[in-house]
UniProtKB/TrEMBL annotation:
GO biological process, one term: rRNA base methylation
Name of the protein in its database record: Probable methyltransferase-like protein 15 homolog isoform X2
Region named Disordered: 294-319
Cross-referenced InterPro entries: RsmH, SAM-dep_MeTrfase_MraW_recog, SAM-dependent_MTases_sf
Organism (species): Octopus sinensis (East Asian common octopus)
SUPFAM superfamilies tied to this protein: Putative methyltransferase TM0872, insert domain, S-adenosyl-L-methionine-dependent methyltransferases
Amino acid sequence: MYNFRMHQTLVIGFCLRLQRPLNFKLLPNYRFCSTGHVCQVKKPQNTKGSHIPVMLNEILTILNPKEGQVILDMTFGSGGHSREILRTAPQLKQLIVLDRDPLAHEIALDFADEFRHCKILPLLGTFEDLPHLLQQHQVPTNSIHSVLLDAGASSMQYSAANRGFSLSLNGNLDMRMNELREADQPTAADVVNTLDEKSLQELIKKYGEEKKAHDIAHAIVQFRAAFGKIVTTHQLVAIVASVFDSPMKLDKLQRPAHVATKTFQALRIFVNNELNQLSNGLLVAHSYLKEEGKSVDNKEQKSGGSEELLKRMSMRRGH
Ligand SMILES: C[S@@+](CC[C@H](N)C(=O)[O-])C[C@H]1O[C@@H](n2cnc3c(N)ncnc32)[C@H](O)[C@@H]1O
């Protein structure tokens, strides 16, 4: 029998919890960044593009780019790493840059224009498209000296509210890295509004390694029943927060993080088919590397059921 009192309590409970403020007071010089973590505010070091390249010195040391080499940056983003590669070795034979995001590709086209003296080849597509794209441009296999793969989403993607990657900015719950070319790909909103509770739980657990996946999936389904579709990032943030006592907790690296971070990560990985893309990407990269070529893969990887931040550096072909 339908229990009206319970329904009412649930609706009121949701309404109260949904009003939980999303801006938390932080220490001066710290801000709540779009990935869900608390970040120290730093003066931007690069003016071109908003991405400050991660592990720059380590990556450059391993890549050790040299005159006459061919280098492939599989995740161009806003070009932070590529720019530094060229600064280190302006006389490369060729710098091939790939991204699936049309906005990143536009930046890559400008980048190629800016560094006209270098042979830059900007490519729009996914890791899976890469063999076809390289063939189209007559790049032979076993011809690339180094490959850089800096997977995940870029700060450019996080900082656009309507792309739906950000926890702190309110916008459409989308999360597709290319909403133009892959128009039939489901958005994060499609996923949370159509999957049943069990599938949602599995997804959040598998791709987000979220211990409260069961409660979060239940809250999502209850919200749908009470209010209809989940449309915005802040609706989802509030639904996830409603199953926790506090909106912040420490992550594995002991950084304070918002409790919705893992759920957002799970949806982003699922929507963009990131794990399959990654394993294909590594295969493609290795088939194009020269015998003694290097690949630097900087990615979050699942292993043994627990998520680790793996910095797999300097992997020689065949190893
Ligand atoms: C972390 S950012 C890279 C930032 C870049 N290294 C920089 O310094 O600006 C990752 C980029 O990879 C792209 N990307 C992620 N998965 C991809 C895939 N499967 N195929 C092509 N590009 C991908 C994203 O669109 C994003 O722009």
